[in-house]
Write a structure and sequence with these properties.
One of its GO terms (biological process) is thymidine metabolic process. With 264 residues, this protein is of the alpha/beta class. The chain has eight helices and eight strands, in the order E-H-H-H-E-H-E-E-E-E-H-H-E-H-E-H. The strands form two sheets. Strands 1-2-8-7-3-6 form a six-stranded mixed beta sheet. Strands 4-5 form a two-stranded antiparallel ribbon. About 44% of the residues have low confidence. It binds adenosine-5'-diphosphate and the ligand Cc1cn([C@H]2C[C@H](O)[C@@H](COP(=O)(O)O)O2)c(=O)[nH]c1=O. The site of the ligand Cc1cn([C@H]2C[C@H](O)[C@@H](COP(=O)(O)O)O2)c(=O)[nH]c1=O has 9 residues, from helix 4.
Length: 264
């Protein structure tokens, strides 16, 4: 059987056009081997589903506000977090010398401090939005492999990472994301992405720079979570999942019109 590679898209979530029937008229799928840039103008999502349309329109104001914000990215430093344990934070905090979090703060922590620290409204809005990266393809395409490589590279470059998968995927156990050829990495197995904040606690969430999500197609709240994590909290979110099944996976699709560029 011919091996198919997953497609990788990358982008900030930037609202470009108000979704209308006319700009929702094209397929979300690029031509095979296409290097074309993704974005609402070029590759809008194809949907006539009223719920999807409502969702897109409802998110527009949030995204517009997020896009209005601009500030230099705050570079973050930390060591690779220890294996997540249920009922405990996945990061050691407050260490001195090898202070795992160094002196830098996460974008969200910095943003919160600006907002809560009596800064002006302009300062409060000056938060760098994050990014959403999408790895998409059919089963056995190497999506999880690509996700783990990316997350491990981010961790290796000093960012704090957290990995999530759907608890619906219990094929290789629940405590790890596992590729079909056996590479694995500890993860949080969740039924809903909205549980992530509760599992980590707000302080630990603040310190996370990169959130990897595997089996993204199973999360009904994928779109809301990704947009909030990227646009409100400045996170880099790397999402891997199937491009569709018989139920259409609308949550995954509606991320696509907000993606503005693909890696060269
Ligand atoms: N049937 C199979 N059995 C074992 N390993 C496989 C099989 N098909 C693919 N692989 C290996 O698994 C890798 C892809 O696994 P993975 O990243 O988990 O894919 P995906 O997340 O897209 O399903 C491939 O690079 C290949 O080496
Ligand atoms: C095609 C298809 C797949 N699924 C399920 C089966 C697996 O749990 C995942 C895919 O995982 P992989 O890492 O890409 O191998 O999705 C499904 O529920 N519905 C489908 O149509």
């Amino acid at each position: 059987m011919r091996h198919r590679s997953p497609t990788q898209l990358i982008g900030r979530t930037v609202p470009i056009l108000k979704p209308t029937q006319s700009n929702l008229s094209h397929s979300i799928f690029p031509k095979k081997n296409s290097k074309k840039v993704f974005g609402t103008r070029r590759h809008p999502v194809h949907t006539t589903n009223p719920a999807t349309m409502r969702s897109i329109c409802a998110m527009r104001s949030l995204l517009t506000a997020a896009a209005a914000a601009s500030a230099p990215t705050v570079l973050r430093a930390s060591a690779f977090p220890p294996r997540p344990q249920l009922r405990s934070l996945p990061f050691r905090r407050g260490r001195a010398a090898g202070n795992m979090l160094g002196t830098a703060r996460s974008v969200s922590a910095a943003a919160r401090s600006r907002i809560g620290g009596g800064g002006s409204a302009m300062e409060a809005r000056a938060v760098q939005s994050g990014e959403i990266h999408v790895i998409v393809g059919p089963m056995f395409a190497g999506k999880t492999t690509a996700l783990l490589r990316r997350v491990q590279a981010e961790a290796g470059s000093g960012r704090t990472v957290a990995l999530i998968k759907s608890d619906k995927d219990n094929r290789y156990g629940l405590d790890s994301v596992v590729t079909h050829d056996g590479t694995k990495m500890a993860c949080w197995a969740l039924s809903e992405l909205s549980n992530f904040h509760d599992k980590l606690g707000i302080e630990a969430y603040d310190k996370v720079d990169v959130i990897g999500i595997d089996e993204a197609q199973f999360f009904d709240d994928l779109y809301d979570f990704c947009c909030k994590a990227a646009d409100r909290d400045g996170k880099i979110v790397v999402v891997a999942g199937l491009d569709g099944d018989y139920k259409s996976l609308a949550q995954f699709w509606i991320l696509f019109p907000w993606l503005t560029q693909s890696p060269s």
